[in-house]
Amino acid sequence: MSERTSPLPSLPRLVAWAVGLAVMVAVPFYAEAFFLQAGVFAMAAAIGAIGLNLLTGSTGQLSLGHAFFLAVGAYGYVYLAGESGNGLAGLGLPTWLAVVGAVLLAGLAGGLFSPIAGRLRGTYLGIASLALVFIGQHILHNAHAVTGGANGRDVPPLEIAGFSFADTPELVVLQVPFRALEKLWFLALALLLLAAWIARGVLNGRPGRAMNTIRDHEIAAGVMGVPVARYRAAVFVVSSMYAGLAGVLLAMAFRRTVPDYFGLLLSLEYLAMIVIGGLGTVAGAVIGAVFVSLLPPLFTRYADGLPLIAPPGSGGVSPAEASRILYGAIVVAVVLFLPGGLMGLWQRLRASTAARRKSTPSPRMEPEEQPA
Amino acid sequence: MSELKVTDLTVRFAGITALDHVGFTVEPGSIHALIGPNGAGKSTCFNVLSGVYKATSGSVRFGDAELTKMAPHQIAALGVARTFQNIALSKLQSVENNIMLGRHRLTRAGFLGAGLRLPYARREDRRHRERVREIARYVGVAQYLDAPVGLLPYGVQKRVELARALAMEPKLLLLDEPVAGMNGGERRQMAEVIVAARADLGISILLVEHDMGMVMRLADEVTVLDFGRKIASGPPATVQSDPEVIRAYLGEQAVKEQEKA
Q1: How far apart are CA B257 and CA A298, in angstroms?
Q2: Minimal Cα distance from A237: which residue of B?
Q3: Tens digit of each residue's pLDDT (9 = 90 or more) over B29-61
Q4: Domain spans of chain B?
Q5: Is A340 among the domain residues?
Q6: Among all residues of chain A, which has the CA nearest to that of B104?
Q7: pTM for this structure?
Q8: Three-class SS of residue B175?
Q9: Residue of B91, B111, B146 lying closest to A207 (CB–CB)
Q10: What would be the CATH architecture of the domain defined by B1-79+170-261?
Q11: Which backbone phi and psi does A274 adopt, to 5 degrees?
Q12: pLDDT band at A211 (very low <50, low <70, confident <90, very high)
């Protein structure tokens, strides 16, 4: 894990990365819009989950307010980039600037909460941050000029240096038409890689060691020179900025922001992601996010072939409900049987195969012939 | 080098007086032992010195700084390091990363520096890891650097804690029962490291310990607490024969027997 032992990644690891990247780049050329949309959502969720995992998994600070910061990112982007008119306010900034602004805005919102985030420990912060979700819902429904109220607002497509992430103008790459989803796929992939790379650097570096010690032994952290409250507040801000970026991407993929999406259930989903994937690691957050956010669309898609799941609106268990029940059960199973989540399972499998490869066969012994 | 001067230190928890007008001085470069039966207030004293508990009254001065008014991380910044009676390490982290935490106050890399792997952060990391490995060799845990702390035997974990405290490059080291629960060999090894650290690094050491043999061998000065009050202080030999101390440790009967003898 530490970067010290291998300054250069090993060959198998390099090959795995190259293959993974090639697959991720190839997907938009083959997959249909449905899968692309699900994939963009999953990658956006992964960025948000990495942020929550920094806070909850690595520092031991529970947050139920993650949905609030996702909303700040999503609506912040829409407000900063949107045009005024039709009773709605907007600053009409260049969209790339609006992305940066929305992330900073989410960080600022986290900073405003930091007097509380710095002082409260673990589950206490969880309870306090619950309030954010309800405050957020109230604002989203009532600050009509900024948020568009219950009906939400359209999301302006991103444009960077004349390149538009919208359906038009259509771009053709290798005879495949690149529409908004294909472009967003690459944007989400790039941002996810960047977000993961930064989070790994933080975790492997000086802040990561301080965060882990705050989680494992708060008093020791203080005595060793870590300003505990300041660190807790700082991690909360960083986690909020990750949520903000995830919110921006989600808004772009939805093309319309609606307040009901950013409820308590969303906060719980993010917690489910990091618990299922594995607390405290970047890879765990990504695995969990992909798992939790791909289940509902896959269930919807294959509702016909799956037992007990009915298409939405037909009276049976809907795909969304079914996936929620399933990952609820999985969270329980992970907590009981898989400390470390799916990531921990993977590491344990690798450790055991490595041990098996290493172990030399024990010498055999034949029974000695005994005189009758 | 500055001395640690505790004067009239009193700590009360909701009616219970854990420390009652306690005073002693740790001379620069000396090993000072704080002893006493269970519940005498030794750990409370340590927690006040490191900023974990707030004093009700009295003062703790280290050089020019008044420690009773400071937060733990500010006290650490002055060069006061401590170990814990019950091991307080990150069990899932490697030994090296645990010791690296001791370098926190000596390093600067923040979220941006570490996240973006800025050159100064990488240089700093490399330089301080080198020193950490040196300290690990000094304390005798170099062969465990990559192992998660939680998998190591108790005696090794105790030494990792000492290494983490030494990694802070302290001026004053507070050791809370450094050899508790160890066997004879481990105790001797730990005592050697403590003596060597004082000699090589010139640090002052304040030691809480129940092992009397070790206290008598190591300490230049001993302060004895009983029920939160100082009942004796002085060189080990004097304290050892003090009737007040014998009464606290062994009971009234033992004092009478000694007087007869």
Answers
A1: 84
A2: B111
A3: 999 999 888 888 898 999 999 999 999 999 999
A4: 1-79+170-261, 88-168
A5: no
A6: A225
A7: 0.89
A8: strand
A9: B111
A10: 3-Layer(aba) Sandwich (3.40)
A11: -75, -30
A12: very high
Residue A6 in any domain: the answer is no
In a domain, residue A108? The reply is yes
Strand pairing of B31-35 and B221-226?
Answer: parallel
Residue type at B195 in one-letter notation = V
Question: Considering its fold, how many domains does chain A have in total?
Answer: 1
Going by C-alpha positions, the residue among A209, A216, A214 that lies closest to residue A230 is A214
**Mapping DSSP to helix (H, G, I), strand (E, B) and coil, where does residue A201 land?**
helix
Chain centre distance of CA A177: 28
CA distance A277 to A331: 10
- Residues paired with B176 in a beta bridge: B208
Q: CB B97 to CB A224 under 8 A?
A: no
Are A59 and A214 in contact, with CB atoms under 8 Å apart?
Answer: yes
The tens digit of pLDDT for each residue in A230-251 reads 999 999 999 999 999 999 999 9
H or E element, residue B47: helix B42-49
B81 φ, ψ to 5°? Answer: -115, 155
Contacts of A5 in chain B (CB under 8 A): 146
Q: pLDDT-derived band of residue B2, with 50, 70 and 90 as boundaries? A: confident
Q: Give the strand pairing for B80-82 and B4-13.
A: unpaired
> Which value does ipTM take for this structure?
0.90
Alpha helices in chain B (DSSP H): 42-49, 72-77, 95-101, 111-115, 119-139, 154-166, 184-201, 212-218, 236-240, 243-250, 252-260
List, for residues B203-229, the tens digit of each pLDDT value: 999 999 888 888 888 999 999 998 888
Quote the tokens at residue A118: 């710095």
Please list the alpha-helical segments (H only) found in A224-359.
228-254, 264-277, 282-301, 319-337, 341-358
Candidates A3, A209, A236, partner chain B, best to mutate (most B CBs within 10 A)? A209
Asked, for residue A358, whether it belongs to a domain, the answer is: no
In the structure, what pLDDT confidence band is assigned to residue A308 with cuts at 50, 70 and 90? low
